[in-house]
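Hi support team,

I submitted a single chain yesterday and got back a structure, but I'm not sure I'm reading the C-alpha cell output correctly. Could someone confirm the output below corresponds to the sequence I sent? I've pasted both exactly as they appear in my results page.

Thanks,
R.
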Amino acid sequence: MVFVFTVLASGTFTVKWLDVDTLVRYKIYNNYEVHADFTSNARSYTFKLLAWKKTKEGTKDPYRSFNRFAQFALDAFADTTFAFGKYQANESGAPKYEWGTKEVITLLKYSTREVFICAETIARTYQRSVLDYAIYSRLPDISLLYHRDYSEYRAPVNYAQYIHLVACHALVHGNYLGPAVHPSVVEYAINEPSYRGDASLMKITDDQSEQLGKAAENGEEGTAQSGGLELELEAVVIVLNFLINIRGSYKAAETFHDKA
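Hi R., thanks for writing in. Yes, this is the structure output for that exact sequence:
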C-alpha cells in the first residue's frame, strides 16, 4: 500500500537567527515528519526533521521512534504541562504514554521551534565550522563501538540531547552554510579512459615480490630490474617445458619397450 502524505498542520513562527528575526514556515505531515523553510544570508534552506517520524504502516511498531521522543518530552515537562500528553498506568501498573492528534501536533510545533533555537546556537557558536560540528556530533561514541547499545549515531538519553541530535541532522542535510559553488566534473569522470597497457600493471607492487617493490622505489633502475625479472621468468618457463618434453619422450620410449 502506497503511503499518502497529508498535512496535519502548517504555520509560521519567528526565531532570532544570527541576530536577525527570521520567519520559519513549517508543515507537519501525517507520518509526523516536519519540513521547515527559512532564509539566512539571502539563501533559502529547508530543515527536514525526520528522527521522530512514524515508520511504514504495517511494521511491528510504527510509533517506536515517536514514542521514545515523546517519553523524553514528558520526562522533561510533565511536571509543568499536559499539553504533550500524559502517562497512564496500564494493566501491569507500568506507565503508558497516551496522546491524541492534538497533543502530537502541539509537541511537534514546540519541538520544531526548539530545534531552530538549538541549531542557531550551534551556528552562532561555530560559524563557518557549523557543519564540522554538526557532523562530528552525529558520530557514534567510539567507546561504545562493541557495546550492545551501540547505534549509528550518538544515542540521546534526554529531551535536550534528542533536540540537539535532530538539529545536527537538520544542519547537515540542509547543507547550512555549505559551499554554494558547482565545480566542473574532472575529466577522468567524463571520458572513458583507454587501456594503459601491461606496462601500467608492472608499476603495481606485489607485497610478495621484493624485486618488484625495489623497482617501484628506484624508478628507471627499478624498471630495468623488473624487466630482468621478466627475462628470468621466461628462461625458467623454457627450461621447465624442455624438462617436460624430455620426460614425455622417456615415458613414450618406456611404453614402446614394454609393448615390444
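A quick pointer for reading it: Helices lie at 64-77, 101-126, 130-138, 159-173, 198-202, 210-217, 220-259. Let us know if anything else looks off.

Best,
Support desk
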